[in-house]
Amino acid sequence: MENTYWNGNGKYEDRVAALDRVIDDLLGDKNHITNSEKQNGKHYHIEMFRRAKYAYYRMFNDGDFPRTFARDPECRGLIAKDTNGQWWEPAKVAVEGALNRRIEAAWQECLKNGYVRDSFGNVAEAA
């Protein structure tokens, strides 16, 4: 797999960079988005992306089991290592897809909240 976030060639690398800036701005000195910010749904997908991003890098960097993705229906039963202790290729594909979906959801939430602009430079209208 060449087009992965681990290799710096993920499907939404440009969005990840923008989302990272949004997260930095939202968090300030905190290390997570507070429950009150998540409860009203304004930052739910941004927080889910933040968690997924760290789980992804822990999986590839440290070999940790990515519980965040293991809960996703499309990843269940696929996240496993081979006999050499390497992540099974279908696990990598499933996790890439799950991360892409979280990026898309966070991006849409950021557009809705006016944190980022679409490809035309417009802030999306709130739904």
Describe this structure in words.
- The protein has helices at 13-27, 35-39, 44-62, 67-70, 89-113.
- With 127 residues, the chain is mainly alpha-helical.
- It has one domain (13-113).
Lay out the secondary structure.
Elements: H1 13-27, H2 35-39, H3 44-62, H4 67-70, H5 89-113
Helix pairs in contact: 1-5, 3-5
- What does the average pLDDT come to? 83
* Cα Rg: 15 Å
Strand content: under 5%
- Number of individual domains: 1
Number of separate strands: 0
**Which residues sit in consecutive blocks of at least 5 with pLDDT less than 50?**
123-127
Give the proportion of residues in helices.
40-55%
- Number of helical elements: 5
Gross morphology is elongated
Strand-pairing-aware structural class: mainly alpha
Sheet with the most strands, sense and barrel status: none
Q: How are helices and strands ordered from N to C?
A: HHHHH
N- to C-terminal separation?
37 Å
Primary descriptors:
127 residues, disordered C terminus, mainly alpha, 54% helix, 0% strand, elongated
Overview in brief:
The chain has 127 residues and is an all-alpha fold. It is built from 5 helices and no strands.
